[in-house]
Amino acid sequence: MNKETALSSLQPGQGGRVRSLRIAGPMRLRLRELGLVEGAELRCLGRSPLGDPAAYSLCGAVLALRDRDAGRILIERTEG
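RE: above sequence
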């Protein structure tokens, strides 16, 4: 069963597919340029020692996002 949730809720090793970006302005444009678009698949690689930011694998690249930004990106969790 797939569940829609915020990207920030992923733990290392978990993955998902982007459903929507709830970020506006320059940050939204920058994330889209980096490949964070609806339908893109990503995986949480790890978190910093204090838990924020987290690193995500996206299209063969590694992207680090703060929880406040990742919390505004909705994903659908995937298995495996």
